[in-house]
Amino acid sequence: MRLQTATLIFGLLTAGTAFAEPLTGKAAQKLMFTKKGVDITVIAAGGLSAADQKVVEQVATQQAYYGAVAMSPDEGLVSKATLAAANYHDVDNARTAALAGCNAQRKPGAADCVIVAEIRPKGWELRALQLNADASAALRKDYRKGRGAKALAISPATGKWAIVKDDGAADKAMASCAAAAGIDDCLVVVADQ
Q1: What does the pLDDT look like over 79-129, one tens digit per residue?
Q2: Which of 120, 157, 164, 184 could staple 173 via S-S, CB 3.0–4.6 A?
Q3: Which among 116, 123, 67, 124 is positioned nearest to 90, based on CA atoms?
């Protein structure tokens, strides 16, 4: 148990620096999860009934990884505020987006939103690189095609990403990713020359 805890803490501490040097396409592909579905963790926050927990699980199963579902305990599951944020590159950013969207939609005076489910790829474990379902599929298929310079940039906060194959691929991927994301947090996580 100590080794697992130490490994997890080390992984979490180094996760932010894992992108200091982009991985090669070949190395990155080895870290991707297969397309065998998602694992759902339902969190019985907000007083979800057993029936509501099943509904949350059914809805979450239809979402792309990584994701989270948020709701206001005062409003219940069937509310305009209940929100699923999916297809992010990690659960933490999906949680942040789900909570922000839910809190923006909840009724005045209603309790702050809470996370009621998390969505991860089937068989999830902490890895040096995590990509959302769409970027993982593009890395497996589109990124592999062709030779020469290519790069994959991701926006952790939005789940957006871009692949560019051309001279100056890294800079162009960052610019394309930033344009899609609407913010300047993009990182080149995969690059080949």
Answers
A1: 999 999 999 999 999 999 999 999 999 999 999 999 999 999 999 999 999
A2: 164
A3: 67
